[in-house]
């Protein structure tokens, strides 16, 4: 059983490891999508060393939308990751996976093609190409997730806490809008920009730009905390915590709570109401919690 968490700084990485997180998910924004922070190669090396000292693991994101300029630089980056003995990378681009297979010291990869990872057959195909795991699309329902998990021999990652990206474009949509209205403002994640639903003045859909383009998120954070014991019983034991929009200290507290929930689950002592109430206390008031697509009818999603 494994809890994976993003990290937004060296300090937070250390705090998460001390809190009991099993694996850190980090990277550089040139090759990884929607990361809380873009670490330099030397920072990545330091975090990998720290995690290994603690008996923990590190996965580096290599799941960006790869263009020719990315492919030209990717072999060098992968060699650096291999040299620092990264435990795995997430990857969904076939060209990038081919480059991994051609390395003298291939790095294990976890298949991550974002919203496209929706069937056991697709994951099985990539398992035959060497994938040691897969990241499930966040638009899957409970029945679909369990059906996929029961059909596989490799672990699949499920988002149990964090935001869902509902749109990405390589175009700088906010910047283009600002040009039209003749204004200039910061469009980064730190600026805290958001959109509103046309008929809901209280809605806040975070939006920001980075070198991968424009990202828009749902107004709620996914929480599968009420269903953790059910996930465990179904064999879904790789739980992801995504703090891309979270405040640093708050996210560490939430990660600590999920580590406690994991330990309670393993002991058969998980009480959903207790952990739901604790998470509600920690959750920022500006971000509601819901189950995402988990409880939806698959026909309603399609």
UniProtKB/TrEMBL annotation:
InterPro entries: Peptidase_U32 (IPR001539), RNA/ubiquinone_mod_enzymes (IPR051454). One of its GO terms (biological process) is proteolysis. The keyword Transferase does not apply. It holds the Pfam family Peptidase_U32. Keywords: Hydrolase, Protease. The keyword Hydrolase applies. Its EC number is 3.4.-.-. GO terms for molecular function: peptidase activity. PANTHER family: PEPTIDASE U32 FAMILY (PTHR30217), U32 FAMILY PEPTIDASE (PTHR30217:SF12). This is Protease YdcP. The lineage of its organism: Bacteria, Bacillati, Bacillota, Bacilli, Bacillales.
């Amino acid at each position: 059983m494994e809890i994976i968490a993003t990290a937004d700084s060296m300090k937070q990485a250390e705090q998460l490891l001390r809190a009991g997180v099993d694996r850190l998910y980090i990277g550089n924004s040139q090759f990884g999508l929607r990361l809380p922070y873009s670490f330099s190669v030397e920072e990545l090396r330091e975090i990998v060393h720290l995690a290994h000292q603690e008996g923990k693991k590190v996965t580096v994101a290599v799941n960006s939308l790869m263009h020719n300029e990315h492919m030209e630089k990717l072999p060098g980056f992968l060699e650096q990751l291999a040299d620092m003995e990264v435990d795995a990378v997430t990857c969904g681009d076939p060209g990038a996976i081919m480059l991994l297979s051609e390395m003298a010291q291939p790095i294990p990869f976890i298949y991550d093609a974002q919203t496209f990872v929706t069937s056991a057959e697709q994951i099985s195909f990539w398992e035959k190409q060497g994938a040691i795991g897969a990241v499930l699309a966040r638009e899957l329902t409970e029945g679909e997730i369990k059906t996929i998990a029961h059909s596989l021999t490799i672990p699949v990652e499920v988002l149990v806490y964090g935001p869902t990206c509902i749109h990405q474009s390589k175009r700088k949509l906010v910047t283009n809008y600002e040009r039209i209205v003749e204004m200039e403002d910061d469009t980064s994640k730190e600026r805290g920009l958001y959109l509103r639903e046309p008929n809901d003045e209280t809605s806040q859909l975070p939006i920001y730009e980075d070198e991968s383009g424009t990202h828009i998120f749902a107004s709620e954070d996914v929480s599968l905390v009420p269903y953790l014991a059910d996930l465990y019983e179904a064999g879904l034991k790789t739980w992801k915590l995504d703090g891309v929009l979270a405040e640093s200290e708050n996210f560490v507290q939430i990660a600590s709570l999920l580590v406690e929930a994991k330990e309670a689950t393993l002991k058969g002592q998980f009480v959903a109401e207790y952990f739901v109430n604790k998470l509600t206390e920690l959750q920022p008031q500006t971000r509601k919690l819901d189950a995402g697509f988990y409880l939806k009818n698959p026909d309603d999603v399609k």
